[in-house]
Amino acid sequence: MAWVKLFKKPGGLDKSYQPGSMISLALTKGLLNEPGQNSCFLNSAVQVLWQLDIFRRSLRQLSGHFCLGEACIFCALKSIFCQFQQSGERALPSDTLRHALAETFKDEQRFQLGLMDDAAECFENILERIHLHLVSDSSTEMCTSKSCITHQKFAMTLYEQFVCRSCGASSDHLPFTELVHYVSSTALCQQVERILEKTDRLRSDMFGELLQAANTIGDLRNCPSNCGQSIKIRRVLMNCPEIVTIGFVWDAEQSDLTEDVIRSLGPNLNLSGVRSNLSAPL
């Protein structure tokens, strides 16, 4: 997987997001990945978090947390960030965080030492563990704690519902939270091809619409009252997060769609195009 991070411009859901890489003023250092360590997935996630000024500054201001010793991802990440700021070395080890991840997820056999894993899932799991270090008695769903930088900065709070336009039947609201919005790279490129069949070029503000269309391909459900209609699911965004993270899911380890995905990225992201607000179906 890969991801794009975007920052909110002032305003509500109708405002655009700009690529986060244009905003960060952080000095950049490398992270070591010695032969056999296979830590590239972790190093990638750490670099993304480091380049997020909003997150980095908020993490720096926090000290109190529920520490888990050698398995404390919060402490390990803060240690790496401190080294990024103070060390004169051009490349730094991420061993402390790698060991903390391995210890934390040893029962699930994820992120174990010496083994490759998924960068986007590592990124998301680090955010979830930071939440638990800060708000240990709270579920990762619907967290409203002001001290939780995971949900205050990244969380998209949504609900989904089925509404039949034929008979008017509707399902109950199903609330949930997303820290990363995943989209199939293949489906995204298919939508780009569909648009380019009708026009010569993509509009600069079309990225959100492309994401929405890619996410709804084949996503049809039966009417709640079984009237025979197939309906699209409606997902409604209830908040406006400071950081929106888009994760691209690749259908194969070696994909020839990388350049196509990059070309589909617009300079702005209209959040209302990615997730519906109020009553528009997604």
UniProtKB/TrEMBL annotation:
One Gene Ontology MF term: cysteine-type deubiquitinase activity
Superkingdom in the source lineage: Eukaryota
Pfam families cross-referenced by the UniProt entry: UCH (PF00443)
GO BP terms in the entry: protein deubiquitination; response to auditory stimulus; sensory perception of sound
Assigned GO CC terms: cell-cell junction
Domain USP: 29-282
Keywords: Hydrolase, Ubl conjugation pathway
Signal sequence annotation: none
InterPro entries: Papain-like_cys_pep_sf, Peptidase_C19_UCH, Ubiquitin_hydrolase_53/54, USP
Family annotation (Gene3D superfamilies): Cysteine proteinases
Family: Belongs to the peptidase C19 family.
PANTHER family: INACTIVE UBIQUITIN CARBOXYL-TERMINAL HYDROLASE 53 ISOFORM X1 (PTHR22975:SF38), UBIQUITIN SPECIFIC PROTEINASE (PTHR22975)
Protein name: Ubiquitin specific peptidase 53b
UniProt lineage: Eukaryota, Metazoa, Chordata, Craniata, Vertebrata
